[in-house]
Amino acid sequence: QVQLVESGGGLVRPGGSLRLSCIGSGFTFSSSAMTWVRQAPGKGLEWVSDISGSGHSTYYGDSVKGRFTISRDNAKNTLTLQMNSLKPEDTAVYYCAKDQAPVPAALDAWGQGTLVTVSS
């Protein structure tokens, strides 16, 4: 079955960087766009970023544009989110999710999430 496993979360100071990874299995990784979504404490889900199945197209939410970079390695079934210039408001559980198509589409599988805490 489809599995998505995130890693890389942790505690970082404001202005610092973290790199999240998500490894997918149970599906043809390159055939699915992939998405990062986050949920801050006490708040709803927020879309962060998308990447097409080929990796050629990327999309970002306004709150992370210019600071976060999404990428993928289809040979390794790995999705990555490089987060720079982190702010306290970036504190959240970050989930990777699988899109239903090679381009951004509805999400049909989620990982368990990894917690990112930005605090001094």
Explain how this protein is built:
With 120 residues, this protein is an all-beta fold. It contains no helices and eleven strands. It has strands at residues 3-7, 10-12, 18-25, 34-39, 45-51, 58-60, 68-73, 78-83, 92-99, 107-110, 114-118. Strands 2, 4, 5, 6, 9, 10 and 11 form a seven-stranded mixed sheet that branches. It has a four-stranded antiparallel sheet with strand order 1-3-8-7, with no helix packed on it. The radius of gyration is 13 Å and the shape is globular. The mean pLDDT is 97.
Span from first to last CA? 40 Å
Overall average pLDDT: 97
Give the SSE string: EEEEEEEEEEE
Q: Label the structural class.
A: mainly beta
> How would a crystallographer describe the biggest sheet?
7 strands, mixed
Rg of Cα set: 13 Å
Assembly of the depicted chains: single chain
How many DSSP helices? 0
Using brief descriptors, characterize the structure shown:
120 residues, mainly beta, 7-stranded mixed beta sheet, 4-stranded antiparallel beta sheet, 11 strands
Fold topology:
Layout: E1 3-7, E2 10-12, E3 18-25, E4 34-39, E5 45-51, E6 58-60, E7 68-73, E8 78-83, E9 92-99, E10 107-110, E11 114-118
Parallel strand pairs: 2-11
Antiparallel strand pairs: 1-3, 3-8, 4-5, 4-9, 5-6, 7-8, 9-10, 9-11
